[in-house]
Amino acid sequence: MKKLLLLAGFIIVLSAAERSYAHCEIPCGIYDDQTRIHLMEEYIATMEKSIYKIKELSGKKDPHSYNQLVRWIDNKDRHAEKFQKIVWQYFLTQRVKPAKPEDKEKYKKYIKQIELLHKLSFYAMKVKQNVDTKYTKKLYRLLNQFEEIYFGKKHSH
Question: pTM of the prediction?
Fold first, then answer.
């Protein structure tokens, strides 16, 4: 019985950890936008490394290489999905607020942020569909543009 309770507690902790990563939408007021940007940069780097490893392993015919190839493909796709989740669930849902068209300056910034977030999501999808680093390079450029618009200027890391 103790083992069952311990297992149940462990599962609850793990599921709570996933929810805390996804953030809460209460709104709790606890946001760390720069951390999300850093995570997105890390996810792009991981996708890019995955692409290089996929290309490296694609010509090999031994079982170990096949196994590693599948793992790198899965890794690339999972990080693209994590990237998209931050775009959708964190920035689009919680952080980028709609602006009234009458307030021309705020509305222009809002439209630009939405456009960049859409492009970030789109190119993350392209990473999942391809093994070409031109898409990760595009993600880096778009993320830098979003960061400049979002924070109002080039934000220091």
Answer: 0.83
